[in-house]
Structures
1.
Amino acid sequence: MIAGHFGFAAGVKAKERSAPLWALMLATQWLDVVFVPLFAAGIEKIQPVAGTADGAYGESIIYADYTHSLVGAAVLAIAFGGALALRYGRRNGVVLGLVVMSHWLLDLLVHRSDLPILPGNRGDLPRLGLGLWQSPVASAAVELALVAVGTWMYAVAAREVAGPDPSLARRARLCASLVGVTGVIVLALNLAGV
C-alpha cells in the first residue's frame, strides 16, 4: 500500500495547503519508517504466506506488533504530529498526526489478519485485517485509484495556487506529474516484488 499512502497524502495536501508536502509524505509512511530499524533488529518480522513466492505483492504476513498495532500507531501519530506542530502550528500537527493514522486504516483494508490492537500483541487479542491483498488485482486497483485521485486533487489545488503566473503553473504541473509518476512507479515495483 506504499503508493496508495502517497496518493492519500497528495490528496490531503490539496485540502490542507499550509501543511508541507514533504511532511505529509513522511507522515503517511511514518509507521514503516519506524518499522525498518525494528525489522533490522529482528523485533518485527515479515514472513511469506505459505506456498507463495517470497516478496510477491501482498503475499506476506507482517508481524509489526509495535509500529502497526492500533495503539502503537496512535502513539506514533501523536508523537509525529506533536513534534511537527512545534514548527508548523497546531492545525498542521493535528493533520499530520491524522495522516500517520491513515496509514493504519489503509493497511487495515489490505493486510491479512496481522495487525494487532495492542503493542506487542499484548493480551493476545484477535489480529485485524480485511485481506484485500488476497486479491492482488483488486488491491492494486485500489492503490492506483488512490494515486490517481490524490494526484488529480493535488494538481487542481496547485493550479489554483499558481494562478496566472506561468512559472508557478509549470512548477505546479511538474510537482503533480512527479507525484503521479512516482506513485505509479512505486506500485509497479511493488507488483514486481521489488
2.
Amino acid sequence: MVTARLKRGSTTSTKAIKRMSDAPNIGSHAVSESQPTRLRDALRQARIEAADRTGVVVDLRDAEVARLEILSEALDPLFAQIPERVDLFDRGISQGETPRLWIDVVAHVVMGRDKRIYRFVQDTRFGRIVIAESHEIAAIVAAVTDYVARRMIEREHALAAMPAPQPVVAEKPRRSAFWTFALGFIVGGIALFALALVAALRNF
C-alpha cells in the first residue's frame, strides 16, 4: 500500500511538473505574437513623451517622425483601396531636417510649430496652400481622403479629354529640285542632238 501511494504521488508530481514546463512556452508564444506591435507603439509613445518632457531638438524631431508614422498607419486602409493602375500617389516619410509624410509629389503632411499639430499642405503654381490643420488624426485622414478622391477624378477627366491618336501617314520623299533640273537638261540635250543628227543626214 505504501508503495502504491508513492507511485501515485510520483505520477501526480510528474504531471504537475509537465504542466508547469508547458505553461511558459504557451505564454512566450502569445507574447511573441503581440510583442512587435506593442513594442513599436511603446517606442513611439516614449519618443513623444521624451520630447514633451525635455524639449531637446533631437527628441522633438523623433517625436515628429513618431507622430507621422502613426498617421501613416492610419492611412493604410485608404491607400489599400486605391487601384494598382493608379500611379499618382507615392506615400512615404522623408526624415530630413523637417520630417514629412508625402502623399504625392506635391502634397505632404508636416508637423506644426508646436510639434503636435498636423498640417496637410500642397504645393501649387501660386505657392504653398494649407489644405487641413488639426491635432486630431481623424481630421487629417478625412482631408487626405478627399484629396485622393479629387486627384483620381482629375486623372479620369484628363484621360477622357485626351484625343484619340491619329494614324501616321508617311509622306513620299520629294525629289530634289537639282536632280529635276539636271534630268530636264539631259533630256533637252539629247533632243537637240537628235535634231542635229537628223538635219545632218538630210544634207548628206
